[in-house]
Amino acid sequence: MSDAEKRFDPVKLLRDVRDGSMDAWAKLTLKLTSSHEYQRLQGVIMKPTFLAIALWRKATESTMSGVLGNLNMPSREEVLMISQRLTNIEMALDDLGAGLDQLRRGTNASTRQQRSGTGRSGDNGGEARPPLSAKGEA
Amino acid sequence: MAESAPGMLEKFQTMFDNLVKVTTTKAPIGQTPKQAIWRLNKATLYRYTPVRPDEERHRTPLLLIFALMNKSSILDLRPGSSFVEYMLNKGYDLYLLDWGAPGPEDAHQDLGDYVLEYIPRAIRKMKQVSGSETFNLLGWCIGAMLSTLYGSLRGQQEGLRSLILLTAPLDFTDTDQISLARMTDERYFDVERLLSAFGGNMPAGMIDYGAKMLKPVENFVGGYTRLFDNLDNTKVVDSWHAMNTWVNDPIPLAGGAYRQFIVDFYRGNKLMNGTLSIRGEKVDLRELKASVLNVIAMDDHITPPCQSARLMDKVGSADKLELKVAGGHIGVMAGSGASKGTWPKVESWIAARSD
Question: I want to staple B269 with a disulfide (CB 3.0 to 4.6 A). Which of B84, B155, B156, B172 is the partner?
Fold first, then answer.
């Protein structure tokens, strides 16, 4: 064996001990947290916690709703409703945009067919006019 | 030989700098240039800037869909460790559907919204931009579940050519193997009470806690000991920092979708039983006719292999392949070995179905 191999390395030893104990700890913890008993215990803790949070939330929301109403301001529910309506409008606009795009393509294709049929010179392939650039040039 | 004093000093300086970096900053992730081409509510469709000229690019675009409860930047973690970068270099026209973070106003959103409203619209836009009538779809984790549902309900009509599923949680038969199923067992876990306590959505912190509790010591302690052991190695620290930044940045899950995951999937196993309906439409896996690549991570503790394997017997595709790879739920695509293991295999399969 070489000198380097023989040399005692306390850091490596400590690291090995640490890794070994962590491995054992991980296995033990996994066994514990995977058990139905652990899940049951977690459920027992969570149920009243969630109930308390829900009650607190309900109380603050009803108080805030009264305060906002007195200030002639929209409530949380009203703001959420507006947001949902905006999403619906966004979807309708998206469909409308896609429909218009399809229509534009259809029109371009038929124009292209007509032009190739009549053999007009200066045919640009029926492509739509490019949008205006930032400088306003076509 | 013992290190010299200046060498030791330099090493401690590096360790200190690295420690300051990981404790006080967030790593820059998801940096590959991309352009938002479509938005709906919180969702955004991005097109990655192609790096290969037109004539060297595959004709069929590829859409990436990640899970709802984590950011999609895991697909583009950092230069050199980015699936997005890898695929762009291979000549793909690449798109990413990023779900964004739902707010209280999105608490009602369910799988029907994602599968039948958002995905089809994003695909419509992608087809318009790419000029291709067919496309390939890659879903990872819950993204794979959504992609499967989409593929079964709309894939055939809308030009889905091939579907790549990564660690897809679809089968909930073997609940003894699925830790999350035990965690959400109806005897111990009241989904309605949780959602009402937190204003309708599943909070990001609870999702994160649940995922970490699947391997508590490894997640809460192991990661930091690994960092401590490599604190003088800036390359390892940078990699750790990027992953840590991503892991600790979860997003809430819309209440409607969460309720369906738990009730219809974890407890009811409705997709595999053939009883799942989305907005009144029955989801029949036999209607999934596109080519399917089902990637299963053999060391996955979040979606164990038993959750994906049975899919292959159920789908109607004639062209299907199950690919078993070494690695965990995230490591399979974002680990240090992914660029030489999973990525080339996935890419070569897609390449054969992209021209």
Answer: B172
Q: What is the pLDDT of residues A104-123, one digit of tens each?
A: 988 888 888 888 776 544 44
Is B207 within 8 Å of A15 (Cβ atoms)? no
Catalytic residues of B: 141, 300, 329
Say yes or no for a CB contact (<8 Å) between A26 and B222: yes
Task: Tell whether A112 is covered by a domain.
Answer: yes
Q: How many CA atoms lie within 13 A of B12 on its CB side?
A: 7
Q: Which two tokens stand for residue B218?
A: 């490894």
Taking the C-alpha atoms of residue B136 and residue B42, their distance in angstroms, rounded to an integer, is: 23
| pLDDT level of residue A138 (50, 70, 90 thresholds) | very low
Q: Tell me, what DSSP letter sits at residue B77?
A: -
In a domain, A108, yes or no: yes
Q: Do A30 and B217 touch (CB under 8 A)?
A: yes
Residue pointed to by tokens 């700890």: A25
Beta-carbon count within 10 A of B105 CB: 22
Residues of chain A contacting B187 with CB distance shorter than 8 Å: 40, 43
Are the C-beta atoms of residues B287 and B156 closer than 8 Å to each other? Answer: yes
According to DSSP, residue B327 is labeled: S
Cβ–Cβ under 8 Å, residues B231 and B13: no
Query: Which chain A residues touch B103 with a CB distance below 8 Å?
Result: 83
Is position A106 within any domain? yes
* Strand partners for B292: B163, B320
pLDDT 10s digits, B293-337: 999 999 999 999 999 999 999 999 999 999 999 999 999 999 888
Closest to B353 in 3D by CA, of B259, B290, B310, B301: B290
| pLDDT for the residue A3 | 59
Residue A63 lies in a domain: no
List, for residues B62-90, the tens digit of each pLDDT value. 999 999 999 999 999 999 899 999 999 99
Q: Does A94 touch chain B (CB under 8 A)?
A: yes
B286 within 8 A of B315, measured Cβ to Cβ? yes
For every residue of B160-212, DSSP letters joined together read EEEEEEES-----S-TTT-HHHHHT-TTT--HHHHHHHTTTSB-HHHHHHHHH
Structural domain count of chain A: 1
Alpha-helical regions (H) of chain A = 3-6, 10-34, 36-70, 76-118
| Structure tokens, B350 | 């897609």
Q: How far apart are the C-alpha atoms of B337 and A69, rounded to whole Å?
A: 58
- A84-114 burial, b if ≥16 CB within 10 A, otherwise e? beebeeebeebeeeeeeeeeeeeeeeebeee
CA distances from B278 to B257, B260, B264, B283 (A): 11, 10, 11, 7
In angstroms, rounded to a whole number, what is the distance separating the alpha carbons of residues B325 and B164?
14
Please give the residue range of the domain that contains residue A101: 74-117
